[in-house]
Amino acid sequence: MIPSKRQLLKHLAKVFDLIALVASFVFAGIVAYSSLNGLTFARIMGVRVTLGNCLLFTLLLVTWHVMFTQCGLYVSKRFTKRRAEATEVFKATSLASAFLFLSARVFHIGMVDYTFLLLFWACCTFLMVSVRFAARAYLMSLRRQGKNSRFLLIVGTNQRAIDFADQLANRPHLGYKVVGFVDDDWQGMRSFEATRYTRCCSFPDLVGFLRQNVVDEMAIFLPLRSYYERAAQLVSLCEQHGIALRLKSPVFNLRRTVAQKQDLDQNSDVLALATCTEAWPSLAKRALDVVVSAVLLVTLSPLFAFVALLIKSTSRGPLFFSQVRVGVNKRQFKMYKFRTMVANAEQMQDQLLSMNEMSGPVFKIRHDPRIAPWGRILRKTSIDELPQLFNVLLGDMSLVGPRAMSLRDYQRFDQDWQRRRFSVKPGITCLWQIKGRNSIPFEKWMELDVEYIDKWSLWLDFKILVQTLPAVVRGTGAV
User: Which residue range(s) make up the domain with 140?
Assistant: First the structure.
């Protein structure tokens, strides 16, 4: 399952923890033995590194990482108090030190004595706690400014739901924005209406509300008598839309989600996420996006200049075509392409609807009269899509992911399972791109997008990137 953009900080924490472990090991070795054995910097640099030592240290790092993960260091800490987070780190580094001590006895590592262990534990704990507190302070500052926000929809209008909303309102540093409340009319509605909160929709209108609004999470606070039946339907709906859940019971069949426990004033909730939160490769995916897009933008700058000259010298109008597209959880962003049509192409679209050759809500015409002569070449070779590298660099898109849909096309989706494609970042290329593009029916296209989300891995991204160039050269399905 493809990880979301919001997991990047978690994986940065993982990388830092490994660096902290290595640095602490080296620091403990230098301090513990410099006075006892006359160890100097020159002698340290002259120490012979064997393959066996490297393999053993790699085993230690892998085991430490597993321990830290099991100790819960890499789940979201929005609701965790500072002292509790520090305690988690103390436990994790203590376990890591104990494992190091046992390994030293098994593999006869003489340098690891009690002094070494104490220095290792103290250094590692100090580094990990200090950086976490600094990151916490920075994120809290961002959230108070309205950044790094999560849009939350609360289901239920009872007192528990209101208390939960009050707790979030009193803690702006958590970065949660309540979109509204969902409920049908009931005897307690008058009490709810006396609060400062508003009901955004009833249950029959919820599907339409989710289609038109940004919702990252849904918190369920329903009365026990209707809890299971109604909540089970909501779980299914959120799975279709790729929305995270916050609920009180783990009894539901969450097929595509990962459960995590988070605390708000010591009240345990199960947060079921629609995307994987423990996927190390998400950091590599974002790093790949940044590096490759930056390199390509520099390398292809002469081509950009040539295309710009071609467009401006043969047609009136802007160089780039920008259009609002639907991103992660229906967030909107401007996507950029080289303009390949006449300047008023969007205004002409309604007049050409009868010529549409694509099934579903997507509009495509093989011989579109709006396309300029040079535009056909740019579209056939996909050169017109190269400016999307700027979107990748900015973080709105990825190199690989479901194609970004326009608002018009998104609003014409008629099946909610297809909307799960909007639970991840859109991409420049995808399975649809390499398997035929516009020659593929819309239903099959959506199935390919969901398949990509469910089977995502770095290896799959790599294969798609490698196969994109031959697909572009062949021009299959390009219009």
Answer: 5-144
